[in-house]
Structure formats: structure tokens, C-alpha cells
Structure prediction request, 434 residues.
Amino acid sequence: MSRIDNTEEWFKLDNASKIYPATGNGRWNAVYRVCAVMKERVDREALQQALDVVIERFPTYNVVLRRGFFWYFLQGATLRPVVTREKDYPCRKFDIMNREPLFRVMYSGNRIMAEFSHCISDGNGSVNFLNTLILKYLHILGKKVDRGPLLHYNDAPKEEEFEDSYSRYYDPKGEKSTLENYSAYHLQGAKELKGVVNVTHGEVNTKKLLELSHSAGVTLNEYLLGVLAYVLYNKRKYDAVNKNSKRPISVQYSVDLRNYFPSSTVRMFSSFVNTRLAETSRTDMTFEEILQAMAKDSREKSTKENFQKFINSNFSFERNWLIRIVPLSIKNFIMKIAYYNQADRLSSLIITNMGRMNTPAEFADYIDRYELIIGPQKYNNSTMTICSFNNKTVFTFVKTIKSSYLETEFFRFLQNKGVDVFVSGNNGGRKYVK
Prediction:
């Protein structure tokens, strides 16, 4: 492993990233994985050569987390990153105390995987990195692939790619978000041992999914919100009567703010929406009723105006003079409370929809599909991700409980609607059967 002269470079954490090191614990520090499943086995040496080049294109990624008196900050790592073979459960927490870089590249069979801490990026930035890495990898193998929409590995990094876009769009005179105050319904189940993560992938035909959502008069994202809420609603009906069974169902999904505010940053620039089915007394709601309720709530909340309020609220907290002068240890305590009250407590399930992968056309000759894995959450025991490529949509469920109710009922619902599902995961693959 060669050393690199990178330690003079340091970066402030962007506004939204400051919450993660403050709230992490032994089970969680906000790690996620982007993965390309290639059509041929991965050549490790070629992948390492590609990484040696591409990491220079993304200097804000090969960094370690450092603790200052008032805030955490990022400093360039001293070692060049090395491609390793996957040998553990996905999204293993980064060893921040020993200054492990906040990203890693791995391979296994025909998979190329990159894992990141949310301290340095979000799904959009990480997919940019992975695709640029694959572009260089394929070129090393002698494949003729056009760069298409990708950031090219030979281009110099641009200053706007490093910016904190939250800071850029903060409006000190603008309205701020109203804090929500409720506890969402959560799936219950026996917990797995510490470090054990259950992963289930379900692959379906994208065209079939779009036909389902269009026939219902909603977007694909809204349709999936409705299905997930319906599955959770049916589970809640048969839970033992307690506080949890009387709580509203809320599905939180992430939003790429670059779709609302022009930005070229490869760092974090995302928000979220908690789409809520507030009805808790009825036990006879149909899927169509739940779908329309979730779609309506999602449309009302996913507006540029609301995301501007989110940015204003987050950044005003950071700029508060009292917050700025208190030591980091006190900030950490405050942010732990804020995270619990305005994050996992408000959502029954967290989902991330990456949508269709924007790649060169030639990638379809070498890549079978993409997968996205969000690591275990601090309080919430289940997450789901969605990504589409070449008419294949892959749903990935990640759980820290043993129950398979959520993914089983979700895939059963799609199959009953005429959508074939191929399921794979920790225990191999099989054709899903009703």
C-alpha cells in the first residue's frame, strides 16, 4: 500500500453531514453501498489500476474523519486506497477511531462494490464515482466505451464539485420547516446478532412496473409508497394491541436536491420526505384508498418550497451563535436528541429510489444490473432501495431483524399483479413462488 501526499487537504463537513459522526454508535455510522453486477468476473488488478486513477478525480472521498474542538472535519488520507475482496456483511461501519478512510472499494465474483459514509456523499455522488471507476476499468480491459454523461477520469476536478450546496442555497430570511411530532408504527421482530445484516434483492421488469403505476394514475415512486404502506397497514392490523399498533404508518424516502436546485457537487445534497398514512382507527382500508392517500401526501410535501424550508432550518441551526461556540461534546449530545426526534422516530420504513441509471449505452454490454444497499439504521430496523438499469429494477431490503414479512408480502403483492420477481440474497437466489 503506497503512501500519498494528501494530508494537507482538509474539508469542512457539509451541513447535512454533520449529524452522522455526532449520532453514530457501535452498530451504526450511516454507511451505504453502490454495486454494479458485471456480466463477467471482476479482474482485481485492472480494478486496482482503475481506482489508482479515479481517486485523483474525487479527492473529497479519500479522507478520514478528524475531531476538532467545535466541529468534526475531513482530512486527506495518508494511504492510497486498495481494492479488497468482500468478506463480511455489507455496510460494515468505518473504524473512525483508527482513521479508516470513509470509503472502500471491494469486489466479489462479478460484483464491483463501493461503500461510503454519508459524511462524504449521497447516492448521486457515489454512483458518479462508481460509474467513472467502471469506465476506467473497462478501458483498461480494452473495451470500447464512450464516456456518455459520466465524469471522465482524465478531467481535472472542478471547484463546484466540492461545494456545500446547502450553504449556497441557504436563505437566512426565508421560512423554516415546522418540526413534526409523532411516533410512527415500526415492525417488530427478534433482532439479529450485532453485525448480522439480512439482505434480500428482488429483480423485476421495469416496463411492467411502469404499466402498473400508470394504470393507477400515479408515478412509480407513489405506487411503491402505496404498496409498502399497504403491507405495513395489514401487518399493523394483526399486531398485539399496544402503543405501537395505534401509531401512524410513515414511509420516508430520500430526495436528490439537485433536481430542484442546480448543483454539480459530488458531496451530500439530499433531503427526505415522510409520507404519512395518518389513519389509525380504520381496519378496512383498501389498497386503492391507501395508494391515493400516500400519493396525495407525497405530492403536497415534495415541493421546492418545502425543501427550501428544510435547507433554511438545517443551516440556521449550524449558524446559531450559541451552537457555534459550545464544544463538540455538547453539540453531539444536542444532535443525538435532534436526530432521534426528527429522523427514525418519524418513519416506519426508509426507502431510497435512485431511479434509472444514467450511463453510456455500452454499459449494457458489460453490466447486468445495479444494486444499492443502505446499511442498518440507528433505530429503524428496515430499509429498502430501488434502482433501475436496462429494463431491470432491483429492490433491496436490508433488515436487522429475523422476520421476512416485509419483503415477502411486498414481492407477493407485485406477483399477484402479474409482475415476475426473481429473489436473491444472503442465502442465494430462487424464483419467488406465491
Summary: The longest helix spans residues 123-140. The chain has a mean pLDDT of 88. Residues 175 and 305 are 9 Å apart (CA to CA). The two ends are 50 Å apart (CA to CA).
